Amino acid sequence: MISLCMIVKNEEAVIGRCLDSIKNVVEEINIVDTGSTDRTKEIARDYTDRIYDFEWVDDFAAARNFSFEKATQEYILWLDADDVLAEKDTEKFSALKQTLQPSVDAVAMDYHLAFDEYGNVTFYIKRNRLVKRKRQFRWIGAVHEYLEVGGTIVQSDIAVTHLPLHHDSDRNLRIYEKRLERGEAFTPRDFFYFANELADHLLYERAISYYEKFLATNKGWIEDNITACSKLADCYFQLGQPEKELQATFRSFIYDRPRPEFCCRLGYYFLNRNALETAVFWYTLATQQTETTMGFVNKACSTWLPHLQLCVCHSRLGDHESAYHHNEKARKYRPTDPNVLHNKHYLEGIMQKYILY
């Protein structure tokens, strides 16, 4: 029923972990190797004989489309070698297979990218993970490729967890720079992801120029537009330009309601200027937003972080009961956080004095 399709290169440290987590819920495993020089293919042979070589041409979409062409089952699942399914998600996946209707063209799953020390998911995105083979959906983009999907899409709560051990941090930047040297025309998506690579390499001023080129096209996906505003704000923060950081933050409101990340950024801006009531407004708004986006989500900005900051704001305003209330909200997510425990002890001491007097 399900073909797993993967592209890999020098993944001997993680590919076994990935395949162990998924082998019992797929009927077929297809491994496309783009030039491994380690034991990747040898390890993969313990799980499948469907292993194919693909000459690397600096094009992720080309490699992924080749992998999809090898699938023979009704649905295709794609993973990277440093992804895994936790046991609970494997169980959910098995249940999904039993109830999946023939009318479904794709299934979106959470992609958990980061966790805090308490096991809370701090950063995730939705991805269309399972797609009907007969629909012949295609990957697009040499770098930061995406799967163009349409039709009936089911939103599931199954999560794929990303657990990388290593990453060639310069690879994508090199690909973009080569494309520029060849004089290739960049799409709006190229502008966006090239700007991300520049920002990740601390080339902030150059990154700003490409974020601006991206936004000027007025053709970007709304989630990329919003992320570009966030990245612009980050760049201006790193360059020590708070007013431009503020402008980039408010610019995000052009595209959607205030997202928690931007509310927290505004709360921090006004808290640092001792505009406490204004800071309270923005942090409170952050706690009231629900995330329904297919874009990247920073869970901290709608859970413990605004509550912790509201504790600070209310304490400075002299409202210790409200401060305590918000600190307890934060403590549900971070039960042993030193800052949270310090606030708890401090506020309980103050409120006890009120009771005594």
TrEMBL record:
Keyword Glycoprotein: no
Keywords: Transferase
Keyword Membrane: no
Pfam family, one: Glycos_transf_2
Domain Glycosyltransferase 2-like: 3-121
GO molecular function: transferase activity
Domain of life: Bacteria
Full protein name: Glycosyltransferase family 2 protein
Originating species: Salicibibacter cibarius
